## 1
Amino acid sequence: MSYYPLSTIPDYFGMDQFLSDEHQLIRQSVRDWTEAFVMPQIDAAAQEHHEIPGLMKELGNIGALGPYIPEEYGGSGLDQISYGLIMQELERGDSAVRSAASVQSSLVMYPIYEYGSEEQKKKYLPALASGDITGAFGLTEPNHGSDPGSMETHFEDKGNHYLLNGSKMWITNAPICSIAVVWAKDESGKIRGLIVERGTEGFSTPETLHKWSLRASRTGELVFDNVRVPKENILPGISGLKGPLSCLNSARYGISWGVIGAAVDCYCTALQYTLERQQFGKPIASYQLQQKKLAEFLTEITKAQLLCHQLGVLKNHQQASPAQISMAKRNNVKMAIDIARESRQMLGGMGITGNFPMMRHSANLESVITYEGTHDIHLLITGMDITGINAFS
Ligand code: TGC
Ligand code: FAD
């Protein structure tokens, strides 16, 4: 249920004037789809801990899977600001919906497009773009999260195939994926990307249950027990940790836009509620403490919008550095989680119910502030960029 009129969505610094007609059309069409398809069923999906039925196919139909992948491979050939706007509108609905689109676009289609063979691109990209198949991205392991370079998953060259062993943990869409892009070490210790198809003997995807966050997203493990991976399934164009990390640049960029959507949903709901709710004979929005919160929310949302727009311009010119993307991801996720938590309080008891989106966004953002590099890891990336000194290890 959408509680507020669309006209209240903030554009306080007139950012729309920097958007082309195409950008505005894309944003509006994804916004309309989110209102019509996601909002009516997201609370039930999250409460019942399952994904929205048919989500990937719907995302494919609206062009939200691989929007910047060229049309010849099934994408839409759009620019990076379009990608950001799509992520923003999806996450206004729910972080799980944006996560589904981020993983498929930036973590599965992007590496296949950038580093895959022509045969791999033709085989997988159109099916991923349409949502006919779902992909997963396996980097994190039970013993190695922030430090993926120490991964243990490995493969051996057996002549006519690779033999893959190990496991990945906390993998979005693992239980429902048809393929997984898996990062593993070869015999010399070099990190390589492998495409593993569901149905391959020894490959299983147990689900991680009882989450309090991203409940409308399926999370699980990727377990490889002597899995024979055909040789043509290795990504030929990349080796080393920079392979998976370059995919994260794209996904983290999308997250910095996406979380603005979650923050806007909370801000608009709080604005409308406090204008309507009366206590002590007046709307609670008339009290200074409530106005302080609303004013700070709008200020922080506006700053995040400006940051993302400029990052999008840089990204369109291939000039966005990984450290700039880290700064935007870190700042904007913290902005959104703070607004979700504070705005929930503004609704009093009503704020804890599923009739309003704050608890759901707030709980979701606990994952978003952790995945794709934790809040503190991104701070350390900024610290290293400033000083040239690595404080990770
Ligand atoms: P370090 O020695 O610094 O770097 C190793 C090599 O990688 C290069 N590099 C990058 N390349 C591209 N983009 C980046 N962002 C890069 N960062 C580093 C670097 O230049 C070097 O290249 P070369 O040629 O010299 O070998 O690596 P380190 O081992 O010290 O680790 C650095 C650190 C901690 C920053 C990095 O590992 C990190 O970002 N850790 C966080 C892990 C993380 O973000 N995991 C995310 C898993 S996926 C996920 O969460 C999906 S959620 C999906 C959803 O549902 O939306
Ligand atoms: P750890 O690395 O163990 O960190 C624990 C704490 O220690 C954190 O606060 C961290 O900031 C801190 N810390 C670590 N190192 C340092 C240091 N050097 N200095 C100071 N503090 C430090 N991964 C994938 O590969 N694919 C996915 O699709 C995916 N989806 C996910 C979905 C969900 C819902 C979640 C929750 C996670 C997902 N992840 C995925 C994993 C995610 O990227 C990791 O959880 C994240 O990178 C952190 O790793 P960790 O959980 O092992 O925490």
## 2
Amino acid sequence: MEKIIIFDTTLRDGEQAPGASLNPAEKLEIAHSLADLGVDVIEAGFPISSKGELESVQHIAKAIKSAAVCALARAIKTDIDAASEAIRYAKQQRIHVFLATSKIHMQYKLKKAEDEILRLAVESVKYAKKSCPDIEFSPEDASRTERQFLFRVVEAVINAGATTVNIPDTVGYSEPEEFGSLIRCIKENVPNINNAVISVHCHNDLGLAVANSLEAIKNGARQVECTINGIGERAGNASLEEIVMAMKTRKDIFADLETQIKTQQIYKVSRLVSKLTGFAVAPNKAVVGGNAFRHEAGIHQDGILKERTTYEIIKPEDVGFTGTGIVLGKHSGRHALSERLKELGFKLSDTELDKINSRFKALADKKKNIFDDDLISIVEDEIKLIKPVWVLDNFTINSGTNITPTATVSLKYKHKVLSGKSSGDGPVDACFKAIDKITSTKGELQDYRIEAVTKGKDALGEVSLKLKAKGKVVTARGSSTDIIEASVRAYINALNKIESLG
Ligand code: KIV
Ligand code: ZN
């Protein structure tokens, strides 16, 4: 069996997705889940971009043991110094240097000729190599680079010490057959290619990122760069879960090739990334979408009952999708809850379990059947990565068809309870305005979404919103069987997140 190295760039390219900013605690939480998922390399960030980013990569480097931690750098000494500083304490370190090689980038962006680009590429790899043995080099926009020049660059950086050469389809322009043939040509035309691993990094502008990555693997690539849920710049990157499950499901095509991914963790990591970035997963998204394992049509349901494989090519449990199976109810005790949470992959302290247990009991009073997705939602809502400054105490609303909605909200703040009252365009707006009064904030709501976690009239509603306040933009979620309470919780979570950013 030959291994395909999974290089996850959720925390770097994924975080570059507009509006997907994560705070250091959230990045660390995702890094731990990626390590548990079994990825080989975690690209943790671009340290030169800010002091906070450098520190965040440092925290990840110190904490993660089972995967290499990689930092990105342009082919500039100060970038490489920042990257090297950030990963210094990692058990397995990698520096990823990139420099554009396509005519269009060299002429308009860099204003440099081929020879200078070649010299800078070699010098930067040699420089990075002094502080880190594992160096990856990316000729940015490789798929639009003139081929002979690309071969020269790849050969030169390998001679300079690059251990991985990554071929990015930076603007998602390639088509699968063409991209596969590019990888084959690199293998055939670069004399020292066997001294490095060929990697690929595909963007999804034409919806071909996964197809291009798989074609590259068939033609000799042995590392793929990808992100959870396919998040990333513009239309995103190749999605980790789709690549991994395509290889696993089509063993006939990807014979003798395997990844180390523990696929049963996929659904949980997907939800975590969605929650922390605020990027909802489309219901029809392959592998992790809410509908990926739902069968509505009668003929399909009949087929599934007779033989599952008639309409299902992936077993839901293989990706940790627990679906809508009833797990617990009113009479389930703390022990049963704790066991189920363990099965779902949560490692909780006793205090955390106490909090979840009381939310669970309150929910069980309102809702007969508690599904796994309800439990996951409660855990995500309760287990805060940041110490909350504002905590919901209670609220009341007065609303109807012919009256102006008003809300009174009380929040706990440093052992005191502060209350505020406001009217608004609707009960949710009135609550948000009351919270703004109490917290002296002028919040600007940039996005607000609500969805039911499970089916049924008593389903838990989950609100995700994007809030701009105090010069910062954050995303947050909240859940409850009452959609106004879910909205209030999400708004308070967002304000706490803003406070944590200082
Ligand atoms: O898309 C791209 O080219 C990149 C490089 C930094 C590898 O993200
Ligand atoms: Zn990219």
